[in-house]
From TrEMBL:
Boundaries of every FtsK domain copy: 184-371
Keyword Nucleotide-binding (UniProt): yes
Alphabetized Gene3D superfamilies for the sequence: P-loop containing nucleotide triphosphate hydrolases (3.40.50.300)
Protein name as it appears in the record: FtsK domain-containing protein
Keywords noted in UniProt: ATP-binding, Nucleotide-binding
Amino acid sequence: MLAEIATSLTLASVYGLAQMKKDGGVGDDVKKIRQIADAIGLKKNGQSIIIRRRDPADKEKNKFYSEYIFQIPLGLAFSDFETKLNVFQDGLNIKKTLYSFSLSDIKKINIKKLMKLKSLKAKINYIKKFIKDKNSIRKSIEMSYDGMIHFKVYDQDIPNQVDFNVEKWDECNGWKLPLGENREGTVFLDLASGHFVIAGATTFGKSQLLKLMISTLLTNKPNETEMTLVDLKGGLEMQYFEDCKQTINFADDIETAVASLKHIVADIQQRQKMLRVKKVNNVKKAGINKRHFIIVDEASQLAPSQVPSKYKELAKEAQAYMSYITRIGHSMGYTLVYATQYPVGDVMPNQIKANSNTTICFRLETDTQSETVLDQKGAEQIQLQGRCILSVPSGRQQVQTYLIDDKTIKTVVTPNIVIKSRKDDTLAEVRKEGTTNRRYTLELEETEVLN
Ligand SMILES: Nc1ncnc2c1ncn2[C@@H]1O[C@H](COP(=O)(O)OP(=O)(O)OP(=O)(O)O)[C@@H](O)[C@H]1O
């Protein structure tokens, strides 16, 4: 037995050392970063960036990156560096050969597993695979600036795809959503923290994310969730949830959408009056646990510039209601989730953008669209389905969102299905009215609630 372990270890060491020799050793990130900056002209009057602090990764303290803090030469801006992030990243990953392998890597080989393999060929293949997997790891960088430029260098990149596992829901307390994974693990969002904007070109993951959000609500807060689902892609994406008891309104055309939003606004105004009587200024203080989520996909179908002329007035009305919901709704227990694949001009109204504190942006077609959503370029460079830039008040980061499968959604939905009476008789009325020269007058009373 001991002899076998020794043979396998020798095998691993010899193979690993051979590969390490081929590579020529591990490079110095600080030196490389400075060389790259110089090579692409990021220096001024002959002065290069100067290293001020090194802070190595410490897995025991859950710190997954090494941080290098540089002073930048006078006359250069952080944006000069930020726009070259890919150049720095690729530079750090340049290898002299195909393999890079260290002695500490050899220690990570699972000896027990190796021992169980019967033939020498299987053992060699196991080690080869281990080395191949190790070498497919790519360093990645995050940059930030606080008077000095911070390079966070991770030994691994964000995963390219992560399938959702229902066990993630056990890790969520309150209104938490398991959004996806970054370089350090799961990223959670608080669904009760404010309104959401979700943007992304077609097939990059918006609908998947909406399904994950709704499934999370139905799993963790089935009795405290109410939903208004506005699916202007023909109702195909949200149809899973149409018959859930939590779905108070379901709209798959502009007229029903406007009618539903109008109801929500009336409900919010009603609730304001109720809170005023109770002399409190939000639902939490009033002891109301229910939250109502208004989920709109695809919001460009409610933008006056994008709809046929006969629907323009309706679209204006819808936008006014949605803006109202984002201004007043949060403290009243109403959350807007505004999703669009086409964030240009009036599809991204200022009020909705300004009043939403979480933005999830998948790939967009142009840098102008990226600026419209995030106030900066970058979303046009995303290549992967499900990869997003998450922007919250505390900062920005890239996340690979979870991919939830239809079977899981069905399992979540089934216990929540109810046979409904036609709840939307009123909506049907409004719809009829809408087709017969209806004149819309906006009466959005903004009642101040007592503090
Ligand atoms: N998080 C993800 N990880 C990996 N692949 C994904 C992810 N989200 C979506 N995809 C892939 O992209 C396909 C389309 O996703 P989705 O339906 O969410 O697109 P979309 O952005 O809503 O597009 P559209 O606006 O045209 O409906 C999915 O069927 C899946 O194959």
